[in-house]
Amino acid sequence: MAKRAYSPKEVLAKTYKTLPWGEKWSQPFGFVPTNETWFISGVSASGKSSFVMQLAKELANYGMVLYCSYEEGISQSFKERVERFRMNEVQGRFRVITDDSFEDLMTRLAKPKSPHFVIVDSFQEADMTYEQFKQMRARFPAKSFIFISQEYKGQPTGKPATRLKYKAGIKIRVVGYKAFCQGRFTGDPGSYYVVWEEGILRTSNNIG
To answer: Which residues contact 172 (CB under 8 A, 6 or more apart)?
Structure first.
């Protein structure tokens, strides 16, 4: 049986709920739909982990955030970021898991009042296949999934991550404590989110 084809009128009639965040976030990233797929990458020590924690805190203003800390677990560095960005301020809207299998995660997300924003850090350590991502995306179309990816020579590590990057609606690469959007929503391609001002100065060799 042939799949449905949409007319231009039907396409233009569609509406989307977007994140109502302020200029600090909307200028570099645009007004992102609340059910988007994100892909965030960057080399080690670029500020990626700090950016993701800041993003998690911002998203907690709009719904429950689940942070799947597969790569770090509850390590000392993870704890320090939770403290540095005062995640206790979103105590009731931020939860961390460290060892859910794919099946466990699917069961958790199927529960009533389950998290709306799901951060998977990292896609590689979650040992998730691209087909499993598609299954999760299809089962929970109203949720946002934010995938953090490892890199090798400036590219996502592994073919599944490369495929995921192309599928994601918003792609962010963190370089030198600046988060640049490579996705579909930003209206100002030259802008970026400042992860850490002092870190930018240091990497620019403006201070010792």
So the answer is: 29, 38, 39, 40, 41, 51, 179, 180, 181, 182, 183
